[in-house]
Design goal:
CATH class: Alpha Beta
Shape: globular
CATH topology: Rossmann fold
Oligomer: single chain
Order of helices and strands: HEHHEHHEHHEHE
Number of helices: 8
CATH architecture: 3-Layer(aba) Sandwich
Number of domains: 1
Helix content: 40-55%
Structural class: alpha/beta
Strand order of the largest sheet: 3-2-1-4-5
Largest sheet: 5 strands, parallel
Number of strands: 5
Strand content: 5-15%
């Protein structure tokens, strides 16, 4: 398993590498964080296009990552490795709270989705609402899922992990 930390140390010293056409701020959804934690090279390369300060984690993502980690055996090597990768990521990126404006955006988005008969998980609506309030894009392996959100910029990181197109 490649070490995520090495790339970030270089990134912190030199600044972001490469160019991207999306927002200058990127909120990671759970699938994106998971692929980074699993050191998926394509995900690490995409992440390195941003300065660490412009990458955002949110409480819903932390909750879903915690759920996944807590499903693993408490002392397993895999769990320890993944916890370490999450900790490393968390130490260098920005944290965004679910603010009142984001909560109001959540209500608006959920009402629009409900009126159209579109159903997605509330946690994903919260993640998207936080991103919209930050004028940020959302990095995800579930672009089709997030595409029903009005006004959300999506950075499509490809098919969900473990699935082929």
């Amino acid at each position: 398993m490649a070490r995520f930390r090495i790339g970030w140390n270089k990134l912190q010293r030199r600044g972001a590498t490469g160019r991207h056409d999306l927002s200058s701020v990127l909120v990671l959804d759970t699938s994106a964080v998971s692929s980074v934690m699993h050191c998926v090279q394509e995900s690490l390369d995409r992440l390195r296009r941003y300065r660490p300060a412009d990458i955002v984690l949110t409480a819903p993502v932390a909750a879903e990552i915690s759920f996944g980690l807590n499903r693993l055996a408490p002392r397993s090597r895999r769990r320890r490795l993944l916890e370490n990768e999450y900790r490393r990521l968390r130490e260098v990126v920005t944290w965004a709270e679910w603010s009142e404006p984001a909560a109001l955006e959540f209500g608006r988005q959920k009402a629009v989705l409900f009126s159209r008969g579109d159903v997605i998980d509330d946690m994903d609506i919260v993640i998207a609402s936080i991103a919209m309030q930050l004028a940020a894009g959302v990095a995800t392996h579930n672009a089709k899922h997030f595409a029903v959100m009005e006004g959300l910029e999506i950075d499509d990181w490809g098919p969900p992990l473990g699935r082929t197109p």
